[in-house]
Write a structure and sequence with these properties.
The chain is mainly alpha-helical. The protein contains eight helices and six strands; from the N terminus they run ββββββαααααααα. Helix content is 49%, strand content 11%. The structure holds zinc ion. The site of zinc ion has 8 residues, from loops.
């Protein structure tokens, strides 16, 4: 049902794909990035990615133009009975139909993510969903060079990842436990809380000392953790706050 495979020359990096909205059941279009156009060139320590051409993060916020339902693309089709009810009662009556398909610039990506965030508030979504969306909004502000807004959303992400870690089952297509611990530590570091950062990173190091736990930790994650611990300690020694 998509046009990725058509043989036109000079293909745009994005294409529209038809899906059914899980809330209003209408056929809608969402914009996806062609896999050929995705070339990762760098990544920050909190996983913020940089791409050569087209940034797929811009397209992760999916919105139904008819009813106003919005979610991260990985869970868009998972709307529950309660989600449908809450969107029908509290979002659709105030929604004015508009299109979100086609190429997005950074401002359009931010708009789309903020509509997702509003949906999460109305739907009382799990903390993990809030954390993921707030982290992406923080990255978009980082790309823009808006450090104040970036920090504000990093703080939200930090709080929500901690809630998700202590109250919600991880795994099942979501983030694994140790990636979650790592990101909490890294967000603490970026927010200028070195003791907190060391305490979270330390959990990964002590888990790595136990063989049955060590096998669940990705080698690269362990390597990153060690590097970040060094960075925090150096920053503490020189008396400078990190970031
Ligand atoms: Zn809909």
């Amino acid at each position: 049902m998509n046009s990725e495979s058509n043989g036109m020359a000079n293909l745009k990096p994005v294409y529209n794909s038809k899906i059914t909205c899980p809330v209003c059941d209408k056929n809608i279009e969402v914009t996806k990035v062609r896999s050929k156009s995705i070339r990762l060139i760098a990544q920050d320590e909190d996983f913020c990615p940089y791409y050569e051409e087209c940034n797929p993060i811009y397209y992760e916020a999916w919105i139904c133009s008819f009813c106003g339902y919005a979610a991260h693309n990985s869970v868009f089709e998972d709307a529950s009975f309660m989600d449908r009810k809450l969107v029908n009662e509290k979002i659709t009556p105030k929604w004015s139909s508009r299109s979100f398909t086609g190429e997005r610039d950074i401002e359009q990506a931010l708009d789309a993510f903020k509509i997702v965030l509003y949906n999460l508030v109305i739907r009382q979504a799990p903390s993990f969903e809030f954390a993921r969306v707030c982290l992406r909004i923080a990255w978009l502000y980082r790309y823009k060079g808006d450090a104040d807004e970036e920090k504000r959303f990093l703080r939200y992400a930090y709080d929500y990842y901690q809630k998700a870690y202590s109250n919600e089952p991880l795994g099942g297509g979501k983030m694994d436990e140790y990636s979650c611990i790592y990101i909490i530590g890294e967000l603490a570091r970026r927010l200028g809380e070195p003791e907190e950062a060391l305490s979270w990173f330390g959990r990964i190091i002590s888990a790595a000392g136990q063989p049955e736990k060590k096998q669940k930790i990705l080698p690269r994650l362990l390597e990153n953790t060690r590097e970040q611990i060094q960075m925090v300690r150096q920053a503490m020694q020189t008396g400078k706050r990190s970031v």
